[in-house]
Each structure stands twice: as structure tokens, then as C-alpha cells.
Amino acid sequence: MLELLSYEFIQNAIMAGVLVSFASGIIGSLIVVNRMVFLAGGIAHTSYGGIGLAVYFGFPIFLGASLFAVGASLLIAFITINQKDKIDTFIGLIWAVGMAIGIIFIDLSTGYNVDLMSYLFGSILAVSLNDITYISILLTIIIFIVTFFYRQILAVSYDSEYANLRGINAKFFYTLILVLSALTVVIAIKVVGLILVIALLTIPIYIAEKLSSSLAFMMFISGVLSSLFTLIGLWLSYQYDLTSGATIIMVSALALSLFLPINAMMKN
User: Fold this and answer.
1) If you placed Cys at 226, which of 101, 204, 257, 259 could pair as Cys (CB 3.0 to 4.6 Å)?
2) Could you tell me which residues come within 8 angstroms of residue 53 by beta carbon, excluding any fewer than 6 positions away?
3) Residue 78, number of CB atoms within 10 A of its CB
4) How far is 77 from 264, CA to CA, in rounded Å?
């Protein structure tokens, strides 16, 4: 194990994994309590359009995916606030169009620019110091916003009508949560990939929800569990030469499968 920690790429992977885990724990908790899992899934797949644009125009992948994901989250927020009866249709449309844009621009790109499979299934072992800096800045922003606006976010998450009556701008905070979700999805793609990102944002959160009595504690427990699953998955993937993202999710799923019967027995 000590030999494993001597490699710089493993050190980077561990730092990135823990940072992303806590960001996912915080934002994943908001996604779950606001019942936004399908919306987050739509944003995750739409961000592939930003990856395609970044590859085609030659600018950083993270930047392209982030801008595209934020733009999609703002559009989704506008549509779902004003036409909630058509949420599924619009999410499906944006999801498909985003993926299509990404695929087309990648097809138009000359040469083999980037390992695109790493964005579908994750590449935590390939994170750079620049990636870690980006993730650290985003986590700092998330912690600041959630801490500073905790009461407002709490009110909007559990009862938006009551929040409006208290003078809280529910639409603004709903949009803010979606934007933060979009940015978190982008950094989580680096760890587990676009296809599996929703699992990282929901499995640890489900367990934490059953163990928590408040939203703040739920966020903390989610971050701890997600970090634990990520580190175990990372070690297993290195030891047995497995895809890291898929291994992390399988560790999370196994933990959930063990937790469910134990939790059911404790209730009885």
C-alpha cells in the first residue's frame, strides 16, 4: 500500500477523488432532496456537447464541458420553472441534442485529439495538478455558497411555496442549485465518467439520508461515504487492473446492497 502512495499519479488521483467526493456529497444531497436526479442526468449527458466543442476548437475540455453544462442548466431551469408539465420532454430533448452536438463536432475534428472514452467511463488516474486546482476552486465555491445561503437553500429544497412566502427568491435558488449541479457533474465525469456520474451523485447520498437528521449532516456523511467508496474503488482498480470509474460505482453499489437489509433489520 505504501508503495502505491509513492506514485505521483496515485497521489493526484486520491486528492481529486476526495475533493470530488465532497463536492458530489454536498450537491448530490441537494439534487436528491429537490428531486432533480433526472435533471442532473440530462445535464450530465448534455455536457458531452461541450466536450465535442472543446475538442473541435482546441480549448480545455473542462472549460468547454463546464460552459456547455452551465448553459444547459440555465435553459433547463427556465423551462422547468415555467412549464413543469413538460419537464420530461424538454429534458429528453436537451439530453439528445447535447450528445448529438458532441458527437458531430468530434467527427469533424481532425486527428485523434483526446481519449474520449475516458470522459464516458472516467480517468481518475490521469488527473493533473491543473485538474486538481480547478476542482479545489469549485469545491471552495460550493462550500461558501451552501454555507452562506444555507437557510434559503434549505427552505427552497423542502418547501418552495413556504420559501416564497418568507420572501426568498425560490426561482433564483432553484437555478443556483442547477448551475452548481452542472459544474459538479463536470468534475465528477473526470472520476467516474459521464455514463456513471449519476450513481456517484445518488448512491452515497441515499445511504447518508437514512443516517442523517439534517441536510447539513447528510451532506457531510455523503462526502465521507463517497470518499471512502472512491478510495476503495481506486485501490481495487489499481490492484486488479480494472476501470477506476466502474470499480468505484460497484463498490458504492455493494455498500448499498449491504446497507439496505441492515437498515431494514434495524427498523424492525
Assistant:
1) 204
2) 64, 68, 101, 102, 105
3) 14
4) 36
- Least confident range from 3-17, 76-90, 148-162, 237-251: namely 76-90
pLDDT greater than 80 at residue 204: yes
pLDDT band at 115 (very low <50, low <70, confident <90, very high): low
Please report how the helices 37-46 and 87-108 are oriented relative to each other, as an axis angle in degrees rounded to 10. Answer: 20
Q: pTM, whole model, 2 decimals?
A: 0.87
Return the C-alpha cell found at 17. Answer: 477523488
**How many whole angstroms separate alpha carbon 76 and alpha carbon 111?**
34
Alpha-carbon distance 52 to 114, whole Å?
A: 10
Quick one: pLDDT at residue 207?
A: 93
Whole domain around residue 58: which residue ranges?
2-267
Distance set, CA 66 to CA 62, 70, 128 (Å): 6, 6, 17
Q: Total structural domains in the chain?
A: 1
**Opening angle at CA 38, ends 220 and 242, nearest 5:** 65
